[in-house]
Amino acid sequence: MAEQLDLFQAAGAEPARGLPAGAAAPAHRSHPPAPDQADRDLVTDALGTTLFVEAGAGSGKTSALVGRVVNLVLSGVPVGSIAAITFTEKAAAELRHRVRERLHEAAT
Description:
This protein is mostly helical. It has 3 helices and 2 strands, in the order E-H-E-H-H. It has helices spanning 37-45, 61-74, 89-107, and strands spanning 3-6, 51-54. The chain has a two-stranded parallel ribbon with strand order 1-2. Helix 1 (37-45) runs parallel beside helix 2 (61-74) and helix 2 (61-74) packs across helix 3. The longest helix is centred in the last third of the chain and has 19 residues, at 89-107.
């Protein structure tokens, strides 16, 4: 069963469930953590669960999904067994490009 997350919610909203309190942000972030950082981390790090990510335009869905796909591949999941579904072909092309770019970076 997929868990639906209300990601990228308004400031002051209650933090996500399932992550340890005070979990450190990944080192690649250079800006302060978002108010919903726990939800964002859940997308990239909770690899053992199926998620449905729903958020507004420009909120970071593609970045979160790229992080999740890359983490799945790096953890040993065959890329052919990962389903990442987007709304448009343009979004799918952008996702594919970013995943390839990040995997290339991880390999070098």
